[in-house]
């Protein structure tokens, strides 16, 4: 049997971050302002290291470059996905991402960003920003110019277990008190539209109004999410989305259940509980990749996982 690729996350301190990556997930975080755990990443800004096995100590980007057979020979210069856990102690700035075409043209050949969110936890009155209320670009420009942010920004109530697909061109922001697992295209291009007029070190953070107006889709259309539940003997598989870039599902395991690997490689994150993967102990906060040709895998225990593949 092939080696499971367990990864060591990379942590990012953010002015809006908190300490729940330690208190909820047990990670050794750098400070009480830790906003992001880059759990499965081969991005230059946070490249995960392999924890154990044959490739121990190598970077995920190195495996992608030198051992493409582990990923079924999938083409592409960069590892296609990026999985993060985000702890928002304060509101994140309101932002928007370009699509591939725009990013390629205006961001030195970079990829655009489609992302999706699974709400791991939130406050009782949790809220999130997805979309806006301008009917066309003209109205969008006017509302921005006149600072009519309350009117423009669309705020939705959320609860634990909700799932959102954020297409490029979608105005979005995570709000305070929310912990999210994000699955996204491997890109770090973000345009900041509005930062609640906050100051950071006495100054407002840079905004990217012109590029934001360029890429924001008008009117807003919600990203299509097709939730579907499949009951197995000892697990429930909940499908959230299959789009051009990824498929994302939740596995709720109660007992011993065998799953079939049908994709080139499989990314798994334990978000609750603990158990075993083919006899290897796994706990909440573990992230790993089943390489190409791994075959059937057995999950045993009482746990929830988010899984994704291209
Ligand atoms: Zn985003």
Summarize the structure.
The chain is mostly beta strands and about 300 residues long.
SSE layout:
Elements: E1 5-8, E2 10-18, H1 20-23, E3 34-40, E4 42-43, E5 46-47, E6 49-50, H2 60-66, E7 81-88, E8 94-96, H3 100-106, E9 115-121, E10 127-132, H4 137-145, H5 149-152, E11 153-157, E12 163-166, E13 172-174, E14 178-185, E15 191-194, H6 209-215, E16 228-231, E17 235-242, E18 247-259, E19 266-277, E20 280-283, E21 287-290, E22 297-309
Antiparallel strand pairs: 1-6, 1-21, 2-3, 3-7, 4-5, 7-14, 8-15, 9-12, 9-14, 10-11, 10-13, 16-17, 17-18, 18-22, 19-20, 19-21, 19-22
The chain binds zinc ion.
Zinc ion (ZN) binds at residues 95, 97, 115, 172.
Query: pLDDT below 50 for ≥5 consecutive residues: which ranges?
Result: none
Largest sheet: 9 strands, antiparallel
Question: How large is the share of residues in beta strands?
Answer: 35-45%
- Tally of separate domains: 2
């Amino acid at each position: 049997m092939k080696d499971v690729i367990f990864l060591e996350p990379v942590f990012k301190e953010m002015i809006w971050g908190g300490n729940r990556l330690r208190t909820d997930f047990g990670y050794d975080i750098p400070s009480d302002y830790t906003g992001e755990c880059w759990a499965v990443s081969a991005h230059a800004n946070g490249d995960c290291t392999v924890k154990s096995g044959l490739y121990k100590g190598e970077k995920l980007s190195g495996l992608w470059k030198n051992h493409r057979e582990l990923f079924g020979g999938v083409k592409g210069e960069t590892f296609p996905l990026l999985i993060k856990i985000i702890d928002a102690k304060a509101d994140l700035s309101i932002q928007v991402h370009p699509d591939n075409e725009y990013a390629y043209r205006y961001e030195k050949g970079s990829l655009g960003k489609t992302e999706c969110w699974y709400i791991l936890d939130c406050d009782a009155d949790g809220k999130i920003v997805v979309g806006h209320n301008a009917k066309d670009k003209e109205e969008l420009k006017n509302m921005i110019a006149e600072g009519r942010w309350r009117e423009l920004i669309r705020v939705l109530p959320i609860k634990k277990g909700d799932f959102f697909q954020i297409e490029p061109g979608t105005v979005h922001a995570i709000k305070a008190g929310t912990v999210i697992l994000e699955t996204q295209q491997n890109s770090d291009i973000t345009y900041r539209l509005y930062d609640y007029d906050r100051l950071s070190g006495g100054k407002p953070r840079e905004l990217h109004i012109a590029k934001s107006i360029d890429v924001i889709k008008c009117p807003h259309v919600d990203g299509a999410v097709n939730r579907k539940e499949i009951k197995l003997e000892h697990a429930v598989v909940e499908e959230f989305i299959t789009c051009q870039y990824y498929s994302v599902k939740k596995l709720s395991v109660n007992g011993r259940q065998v799953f079939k690997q049908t994709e080139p490689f499989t990314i798994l994150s334990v978000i609750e509980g603990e158990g075993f993967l083919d006899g290897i102990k796994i706990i909440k906060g573990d992230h790993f990749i089943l390489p190409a040709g791994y075959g059937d895998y057995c999950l045993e225990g009482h746990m929830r996982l988010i899984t994704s593949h291209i």
